[in-house]
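seq:
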Amino acid sequence: MIIDAGFIVNTIHKTSNKMSKLFLLLAIWLMLLLATLTASAEGNEYTGRSQSVYNSEPYMGFVTISFNVNEIDSVRFQIVDTLNNEVFGPDYEKHYPDNAHYRQQCRNDWQGVLHYPKELLKKQSIDSVDAVSGATWSYNIFKAAVNDAFKKNKGK
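struct:
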């Protein structure tokens, strides 16, 4: 189960009063917790999340890995900017209009966000997925989230 973060972000932005936003953020947190517990109970879907080594940054990676028997069947991955309540996507560079280097970094990492799940599905092991040049940030977050998913479900 993966939560549609775009829907959540739009709902938060449409909510005007601070108490309602606080309640909505609490509801989102509970939904993420429930999604994790549900996935663990189902046994064929693992969820993980991580900031990797970027603990001082407001970005959190979320991964959902589904299995068919002992083979990875699907991988979904997204990075959420928790400060701006926004999913990192192809237009994220808009936050850096005056910094060409950061805009290019956003483009590179977006390509990583798209690439890494496909590679994990193809190679069936996170240790066989290599970082794409220029997209190390998204790779580190992806790898740490995948490892979190497997760590939480070890022995199941």
